[in-house]
Write the structure tokens for this entry.
Amino acid sequence: MELSPKIILCCVFAFTLQKNRVQAQFPARPNIIFILADDLGYTDLGCYSNPYNETPHLDSLAKGGIRFTQAYAASTVCSPSRAAILTGKHPARLQLTNFLVGERTDSLSPVLPAKWRKYLPTEEKTLPEYLKTVGYQTGMIGKWHLGGADSLAPWGQGFDYTRMIGKNGLDYYNYSIYENNYQKEFKDNGTYYLTDKLSDYAVEFIDNQTHNQPFFLYLCYSAPHVMLVPRGDKLKKYLGKYEKFKAYYNPYYAAMIESMDDGVGRIMAQLQQQGLLNNTLVIFTSDNGGVGLAELGPIPTNQAPLRRWKGFVYEGGIRVPTILYWQGQIAPQQTCDQYFTNTDYLLTFLELLQQKKENLPDGKSFLPLLKNPQQPHDRGAIYWHYPHFSNQMSRPAGAMREGDWKLVEHYETGALELYNLRDDLSEVNNLADQYPEKVQQLHQKMLQWRQTVGASMPIRK
């Protein structure tokens, strides 16, 4: 039976309507504020059940939006993770697989670290460059860590307004900030706490915006990265309740997180003052897991029940706190248990703006979850590749997750581990011997993926 032209037209219209339904639910060209913490662990915020650290503003964001329980960083360390956010490409594909000054080796190991690229190439199209083509003003504040040459700095990678941490980035009272170029530099001599200074710049950037042009702000706090240098007036209350919690938490780390939380509160107040809350999507997340060993001082945090910490491909190194807030567009008090990784942000933003889908095979949009966090989201397999020795004592390894299954491969020995994250979040029970066919299936996928992206492997001595 032939379909009439009228029926065919109705079918085409229905398909187009379904395709655009999610996008049509959101206002066109919203402002986007992407706030990235540095080495903040999954369990470090009040809204993620931390009873010691005080984060009222971030807790309020979570209460007013979506708190994700299975959001991942694409890498176990900072520079690759940041490159993934900005390009939508996996660090292994970019050959940017370690933090920029990571040079650790082990004389007793049978391997040397893989060769890798120590910058984000200028030919890679970045998130701000995508957004500028549709009329966005773009701003970057804080830690960059993706290359230092003029063409590699934020002002050469798509940002109109830049306040990039320069010298002494780990010293919160003795640092410098480059303002749009290397010729103009703000130098602190112990006057302005670095976290507060970055928040000042963020408020200044928002204050200069109008309703006439959308903006994208990429705010990269250095907190709570070591060294652990808090503001003195934030520290007293944490020292006062230290014994109550039997020395389980770090008061210096907690005070640093609170200063960052204060900055988030100031940003939200500025948006409200300018009447921008209803048209601004706010994302808060971390670049990798928290540090769980003594590094430049006492142990910052404990990731339990997650296994290990920054540098490791176990959950403590890659699962990160993630909050999305958009007043009037994202329903409050939502929790999403679907998993995604930070290569997915770029495609999500492009779909939100109804832009042409780019050929970015390492990402997948999760935009539908913003309206319905409970719906199924078939993310498919996600991968981690860290062929290096980290400062946090991890060794070369890779991993993948598909559904509830997670495979870990140790590159020095070839040993494989299999975990079911639904039943074993702490990755205690290695099921490799019980499910050899599943191990083989996932390992073949991982080998094929590494070949496809051109992943550099450790070098046998």
Remarks:
- Confidence is low (pLDDT under 50) at residues 7-23.
